[in-house]
Amino acid sequence: MITFLSIKNYALIEDIRVDLNAGMTIITGETGAGKSILLGALSLLLGKRADISSVKDASKKCIIEAEFSLGGYQLESIFAENDLDYESDTIVRREILPSGKSRAFVNDTPVSVAQLQALGIHLVDIHSQHETLALTDTAYQMEVVDALAGNKLLLQEYSTQWRNFLKASERLSALKNQKAEATKELDFNTFLHTELTEANLKGTDQEALEETYEQLTNAEEITETLSQVAQLLSEDQIGTLQTSKEARQSLGKLRTYSKQFEELWERINSVIIELEDIESSVETVAETMEADPKEIAVLNEKLQTLYTLQKKHNVATVEELLEIEARLSEKIEVTLHIDSEIEKLEKEVASEKEKTRTTGKKIEESRAIAIPKLKQQLETILGELGLPNARFQFDLKPSETFRKNGINDLELLFTANKGLAFGSLKKVASGGEMSRIMLAVKAVLSRYKKLPTIIFDEIDTGVSGEIAHKMAEIMSEMSATMQLLSITHLPQIAAKGEHHLKIYKEDVNEATQTRLQTLNEEQRIVEIAQMIGGKNVSDAAIANAKELLN
């Protein structure tokens, strides 16, 4: 319920704050006094689109704020779904800045308009002749039936099963599409994989292959060059080894003279040892170097295969080719085993479908039991509201597909007069009849579920006399379990309220402002008397007002 409402700088309102109570609060005022402004501000607070033109002074910020007492309404899950922190006393604030931008806060946490709207529908329910269109919505009609049937827990179970069924069905559909695409690619992927497998790439050292191939294809040049090197090293007269040995022999004569000559002898001796080793290696390589045409052909074929595969797959190394081979193998494996996965998913979909259908059947059975009760209660209330011949026909049918709220379609038909055929509410019910049907529906709902704050905006239009009295009694009964605000022009309804607010206009500093006043007992008598007899209050009107209040 709303505990207070504050409005600043909105339309004709300068600054209003009103404390609201449980039970039934009446809001009265002359036509044009600003009752619609009050509802407009409240609608803005609940997520309606902001408009800078509704700001009183465009140079200042417009602020609308309300506190809601939420204990017992079980709205924790709604807060969680909208990523909001739940508090039993929640403050909602909406601001319109001079720039025209708007922002919203829930418990001082910034929220989007979408979050505000999602929360707002659980806080306040505003009804006028325009809002009665909800009655024609099949989902709303089913919600009313489910409230009487007590289907809350079953619907939660169904919703979970239905979502599981949809998710499993989506996965199955995706897997079947994957299979269709994979089947198209299977032959090509298999060809590529076979090509890579037959190349026997594991353990292949491309650099070593290229080096060996270069040596073999240039074996003649290499052998000739190595022979020249060997000759330069070992020739008898001018070979490097021969001259180095002669130098070593000469230095050997000087070794005993000093350490310096000893070191020189050691160094040249080391060079000779290294040269002898080089000579041996050159001779060995030269002897083993042989240009085998068959080996060259094998190496060439291996390298050409590598180059072709690397160009085809746009890579530069053997490692990358092996990665591609592994990925192709995985794709082929998935394609070959996808049928078993599809079979498993088909069983899962069938299982979830059966669970959903079973719970849906339970919901359908409880709906079928509840409909006669709902029909009887609505027709009884409408009879008291001046529609004694009003009749409803609820046609509950199995739906072809699973619905969000069960496995049924519902068609609600209505007639207000004997002898006339049933028709849809939208076509056969007048505005006044729709208002009374909405009141009857809300009255029935209030007996079975805890509703948010309800605001009736002149829902009593077009009624008077005893019907107005009965409408007031129904609202009063509803207010025993909920907060109810009623904007009215009827004294019979105004007298039934536990609290009374008056909206009026006043000129302040040559500017018209909308004001709000909480009426005491004496002021209520005068206000109701004026509703009965006009501004010039007579003793008879006062007496009538007192009688209504008593």
From TrEMBL:
<protein>
    <recommendedName>
        <fullName>DNA repair protein RecN</fullName>
    </recommendedName>
</protein>
<feature type="domain" description="RecF/RecN/SMC N-terminal">
    <location>
        <begin position="7"/>
        <end position="507"/>
    </location>
</feature>
<keyword id="KW-0547">Nucleotide-binding</keyword>
<keyword id="KW-0227">DNA damage</keyword>
<comment type="similarity">
    <text>Belongs to the RecN family.</text>
</comment>
<keyword id="KW-0067">ATP-binding</keyword>
<dbReference type="InterPro" id="IPR004604">
    <property type="entry name" value="DNA_recomb/repair_RecN"/>
</dbReference>
<comment type="function">
    <text>May be involved in recombinational repair of damaged DNA.</text>
</comment>
<dbReference type="InterPro" id="IPR003395">
    <property type="entry name" value="RecF/RecN/SMC_N"/>
</dbReference>
<dbReference type="InterPro" id="IPR027417">
    <property type="entry name" value="P-loop_NTPase"/>
</dbReference>
<keyword id="KW-0234">DNA repair</keyword>
<dbReference type="Pfam" id="PF02463">
    <property type="entry name" value="SMC_N"/>
</dbReference>
